[in-house]
Amino acid sequence: MKVRLTYTPSIIQKPTIAEVILESKAKININRANIGPISGEMIIDIPEDKYNRVVQLFKDKGLKVSLLYQPIMRDDSRCIQCGVCTSVCPVETFRIEKDWSISLETDRCIQCGVCTSVCPTAALTLSEGEI
Known about the structure:
Residues 70-99, 100-129 form the 4Fe-4S ferredoxin-type domain. Pfam families: Fer4_21 (PF14697), NIL (PF09383). Keywords: 4Fe-4S, Iron, Iron-sulfur, Metal-binding. It is a single chain. The protein is α+β, with helices and mostly antiparallel strands. The protein has helices spanning 16-24, 51-60, 84-88, 114-118; strands spanning 2-7, 29-35, 40-45, 64-67, 72-74, 94-96, 102-104, 124-126. The longest helix is centred in the middle third of the chain and has 10 residues, at 51-60.
């Protein structure tokens, strides 16, 4: 399950990821991280069987945790099926099908935002997610 972790200045310098992995014994995959000296954000994947425990541990350590039910959304009424998104996505969230339509595998999205910045019709938006 994909979640967004938001760090605050009080915890940015602490090894929270390592602590949660050790305490929960969960294999956590970091999809994307943007960590600075006073704040940060990560998109991570948590195994479903460890999800509740891991989320609680992160919350207990002071991180804001948001579940990304659908990391990226497409407005089909605006999408012109141009395929620009397929050429820029680093994780192949978009795919050109045999009928030339563009399919979307939302579970692959790491919310880098590249596709939303190049979409000529602004048909793509990133989800905020909440728990």
